[in-house]
Write a structure and sequence with these properties.
It contains no helices and 5 strands. The protein is an all-beta fold and 72 residues long. A hairpin with a 2-residue loop joins strand 1 and strand 2. The relative contact order is 0.32.
Length: 72
């Protein structure tokens, strides 16, 4: 799932894979430096494209509070 926060709620995206790589289908990423890890660079990468697809999108909106509403 992926979430995108908005000013008045959020969007949720459910992402699916037709085929999930097995353990042997992952290799060490040559761009990863264990001495200087970067959260943007994965440690392992799949040997073939994952081909993700959107399963469902859900949007949740919250009612905005009125500035002049009485507080109880």
């Amino acid at each position: 799932m992926r979430f995108r926060l908005t000013e008045d709620g959020f969007d949720m995206y459910v992402v699916g894979l037709e085929s999930v790589p097995k353990r042997r289908d992952w290799i060490a990423n040559k761009k990863h430096d264990k001495n200087r890890p970067d959260p943007e660079i994965p440690v392992f990468v799949p040997t073939h494209d994952l081909k993700p697809h959107l399963v469902e999108k859900i949007s949740i909106s919250f009612a905005r509070k009125r500035a002049d509403a009485a507080v109880l």
